């Protein structure tokens, strides 16, 4: 099972081709990890989410870790781990960035946004209002195994 | 996209049928998340790993979060999140538990153990010595979406 480290260019290409990640945050040193959909552009990861525990925790402690993998089996896989910083995109200071995130994510996840909108309409709740945020990537490492 | 909460029985059945998880730990409130293979028995998750950053961090702060999912697409998925406590299985106090973990994991991951042993033989390094630990599950929640 030869293991090889991925260089920064490989890590960036891997994130650019992926859409599903696991995002970990932490509060009072209790970690919390959830699956998310994202779009990557150097050096940011844009995320479409809903309000909830993770956004509350990241608001309190913006240090996060993002993990993206492709796992064929125990001997053939690649995994990239990025340390980063949570950035909310409040109006009006970040109107441009928010619009950019919205466009970037809408083109990929239109179906999901429609489903969320439909559900919100039915239930009349704000908790599933789509929320856009981004993560500034501070460092990245990647590892690849192939048999 | 109807969402439903999984009850404790559903969560346990889901973990029992899975083998791949993402494990998050945290040190100085910097989270870190990695993919791991595991075997579940109420109320513990047994993990086969190697030494490295995650084991150092969990040694320093045993609070962890384990996330297991099956994601078909954005509208059809299930995800279970377990909060737990890292437990090393040092000799001689935990000889029995360690042997139990070894048996449980060896039967599932024999191929991987052999590959690790072979690699260790070639490289003569202890860093890829297989390490067994377990996570005591303190609480679990699960969510399922189906279109």
Describe the structure in your own words.
The structure is a homodimer of 147-residue chains. Chain A is α+β, with helices and mostly antiparallel strands and 147 residues long. Chain A has one domain: Electron Transport, Fmn-binding Protein, Chain A (Pnp Oxidase, Chain A). Chain A contains three helices and seven strands. Chain A has helices at residues 8-16, 53-60, 95-123; strands at residues 3-6, 20-27, 30-41, 44-49, 63-73, 76-88, 131-145. In chain A, strands 2-3-4-7-6-5 form a six-stranded antiparallel barrel. In chain A, strand 5 (63-73) and strand 6 (76-88) form a beta hairpin. The longest helix of chain A is centred in the C-terminal third of the chain and has 29 residues, at 95-123. The radius of gyration of chain A is 16 Å and the shape is globular. In chain A, 31% of the residues are buried.
- By DSSP, the count of extended strands of chain A is 7
CATH homologous superfamily assignment of chain A: Electron Transport, Fmn-binding Protein, Chain A
Under CATH at level 1, the class of chain A stands as: Mainly Beta
CATH architecture grouping of chain A: Roll
Q: What is the CA–CA distance across the termini of chain A?
A: 5 Å
Question: What key attributes describe this structure?
Answer:
homodimer, 147 residues, alpha+beta, Pnp Oxidase, Chain A, 6-stranded antiparallel β-barrel, 3 helices
Task: Summarize the helices and strands and which ones pair or pack.
Two copies of one chain form a homodimer.
Chain A: E1 3-6, H1 8-16, E2 20-27, E3 30-41, E4 44-49, H2 53-60, E5 63-73, E6 76-88, H3 95-123, E7 131-145
Antiparallel strand pairs in A: 1-7, 2-3, 2-5, 3-4, 4-7, 5-6, 6-7
